[in-house]
Specification:
By secondary structure, this protein is an all-alpha fold. It is about 40% helix and about 0% strand. The chain has two domains: about 30 residues, no CATH class; about 40 residues, no CATH class.
Amino acid sequence: MVITLKIDNPDIEKELTHFVKQQKEVSVEALRNFLNSFQNKEKFDFKKKDPKKHSRKITYIDEENEDLSDVKPYAHIEDSGQYIHDLRRKRNR
């Protein structure tokens, strides 16, 4: 994702550049909070969330023990090259 900003104020531009270099990765929420801090005229401090604390393990429950050996995705496609070519042609229209 790329976000383009036009900033006419050199002070804000300098602080934003410093903020982005400090963070290395900037979320939309962090950027919004940074820009809102100028309206409130207060120092902005944004801390990244620790992924270990804010993540959880996904567990899959296999209650029915289904036999999925006969499931073959994209089995209806005979020529994969032509299929991809057609998909790209539809996307680029």
